[in-house]
Automatic annotation (TrEMBL):
<dbReference type="InterPro" id="IPR036188">
    <property type="entry name" value="FAD/NAD-bd_sf"/>
</dbReference>
<dbReference type="GO" id="GO:0009851">
    <property type="term" value="P:auxin biosynthetic process"/>
</dbReference>
<feature type="domain" description="Amine oxidase">
    <location>
        <begin position="166"/>
        <end position="418"/>
    </location>
</feature>
<comment type="pathway">
    <text>Plant hormone metabolism; auxin biosynthesis.</text>
</comment>
<dbReference type="InterPro" id="IPR002937">
    <property type="entry name" value="Amino_oxidase"/>
</dbReference>
<feature type="domain" description="Amine oxidase">
    <location>
        <begin position="26"/>
        <end position="70"/>
    </location>
</feature>
<protein>
    <recommendedName>
        <fullName>Tryptophan 2-monooxygenase</fullName>
        <ecNumber>1.13.12.3</ecNumber>
    </recommendedName>
</protein>
<dbReference type="InterPro" id="IPR050281">
    <property type="entry name" value="Flavin_monoamine_oxidase"/>
</dbReference>
<dbReference type="Pfam" id="PF01593">
    <property type="entry name" value="Amino_oxidase"/>
</dbReference>
<dbReference type="GO" id="GO:0050361">
    <property type="term" value="F:tryptophan 2-monooxygenase activity"/>
</dbReference>
<comment type="similarity">
    <text>Belongs to the tryptophan 2-monooxygenase family.</text>
</comment>
<keyword id="KW-0073">Auxin biosynthesis</keyword>
Length: 423
């Protein structure tokens, strides 16, 4: 949240507030750079939001965002390069296995063709205009045996199956030219939060904009007054009107834009698996030829024996319906990988961490998804409410939706708008 305090004696240059995920950090840094004083209110006991790096067996491992997507337009890539951060381009090579063998060249080529055809069809479908519809409806029928896999992976990275994703919103994401950062994305973003005036464990329960400026009810931290606020809490949380209460209520179009998002689900099951049959570092692996398939698999992360087995929304929902918890995810992963490499192939497999962002009270999902018919919501939320409430964060980014880079871009945009408005 970010704003400027009307109490000129106490705070002559204004006071800004933000929750510190990527979007909040960007907003706070930009507001400081624009000469406003900043206070940051963060619900958790740590900064980082959905970016966090933890140490597992002495190695830094991201439990949230890991890829710096869309290198040419991602502000965190440009900033990282300028700061001399240890960025490296993501590998283009990947693994494709069918049953217990590597795919033949003709199979790999057919798979690549199916991707190209599907992506072109979705792009063309969106460009055609007309009423919005599910992205799945644009997939051409002739993808053969590769079609279900292409649809599943698009659903994984979208956060919901393609039938639940807006066609018009879908192609806005630029996935090419990705980067990784040694030491973890979460650790990098934590470095960018250094020196920010952050109040931790300060959840904002209510935002009163009935009078002049805004009053933020931060529980034990008291009521903080400001001339404006930038709200970077996830849309999945803002949909719950009891989580952050707005007084008066938000205007109907704004409330409808927030409520229309659905929760994207994408979870890391972190594997420590030294003998995994994948060579090269940071390579995606596709395992086909069995009923059980990892929706996503990133192998030898940072060249270490760690791998990310990615859960998509359907798998996560199935685990939740069975009340299986993290151990259920571990069993599922073992069963799936054993189906592809045999029981002896997973003898040294350990699963040291399973993320559950969908159950985290301060995220309630991995990123916000635009369902069919809701395209336009991101742009709708860019308009300030009452000239003093700005929204930011990943959900507002068109070109980098669902990403830390998009959250950063939107935090800076909102901060500039606030600074211009309060100048
Ligand atoms: C498993 C996983 C993998 C991902 N992989 C990638 C990836 O590879 N690359 C990528 O770019 N993105 C990835 N993402 C998405 C990325 O992490 C998010 O899009 C991005 O971090 C969101 O940033 P944000 O600032 O919008 O929100 P957040 O990071 O969620 O920040 C919002 C902050 O607001 C705080 N907050 C919430 N409610 C309140 C309140 N009431 N009062 C005060 N504070 C509050 C939260 O605690 C949080 O710190 C992934 C996400 C997940 C979960």
């Amino acid at each position: 949240m970010a704003g400027a305090d009307p109490d000129a004696e106490r705070c002559p240059r204004g006071l800004a507030r933000a929750a510190v995920g990527a979007g909040g950090r960007a907003a706070a840094r930009r507001l400081l750079a624009r000469g406003l004083s900043v206070a940051v209110l963060e619900a958790r006991g740590r900064v980082g939001g959905r970016t966090v790096t933890t140490m597992l067996r002495g190695h830094p491992v991201d439990l949230g965002a890991h890829w710096l997507h869309a290198g040419p337009i991602n502000p965190l890539v440009a900033l990282g390069l300028a700061r001399g951060e240890p960025l490296r381009r993501a590998a283009q090579e990947s693994h494709l296995r069918i049953g217990r063998r590597p795919a033949r060249p003709a199979e790999s080529a057919a798979f690549a063709r199916a991707w190209a055809v599907a992506d072109r069809a979705i792009g063309d479908g969106a460009r055609l205009g007309g009423p919005d519809r599910p992205a799945a409806s644009a997939l051409p029928p002739g993808l053969g045996p590769w079609g279900p896999r292409v649809a599943l992976v698009h659903g994984l990275v979208s956060g919901r199956p393609l039938g639940e994703v807006s066609l018009h919103d879908f192609p806005s994401m630029e996935y090419g030219d990705n980067f990784f950062i040694q030491g973890g994305y979460g650790a990098y973003l934590a470095r960018l939060a250094r020196f920010l005036p952050v109040a931790l464990r300060a959840p904002v329960r209510a935002i009163d904009w009935s009078g002049e400026g805004v009053a933020l009810d931060a529980g034990e931290h008291g009521v903080l007054r400001a001339r404006a606020v930038v709200v970077t809490a996830p849309m999945m949380l803002l949909r719950d009107q009891d989580a952050v209460r707005f007084r008066p209520h938000l205007p109907d179009p704004v409330r409808a834009a927030i409520d229309g998002f659905s929760a994207g689900i994408y979870e890391h099951v972190v594997l420590h698996w030294p003998s995994a049959p994948f060579r090269g570092r940071d390579r995606l692996a596709t395992l086909l030829g069995h009923r059980l398939q990892p929706p996503g698999l990133l192998t030898r992360v940072d060249g270490a024996p760690f791998h990310f087995f990615e859960l998509d929304a359907p798998l996560a929902h199935r685990l939740d319906a069975a009340r299986a918890g993290a151990d259920g995810a571990r069993r599922l992963v073992r069963e799936t990988l054993a189906a592809h490499v045999g029981a002896s192939g997973i003898r040294d497999l350990a699963v040291p961490a399973v993320s559950e962002w969908r159950h985290d009270p301060w995220s309630r999902g991995s990123w916000a998804v635009v369902p069919p018919g809701h395209a336009g919501a991101r742009d709708r939320l860019k308009e300030p409410v009452g000239g003093r409430i700005w929204f930011a964060g990943e959900a507002l980014s068109r070109a980098q939706w669902g990403t830390a880079g998009g959250a950063w871009e939107e935090g800076e945009r909102a901060a500039d708008a606030v600074a211009d408005a309060l100048a």
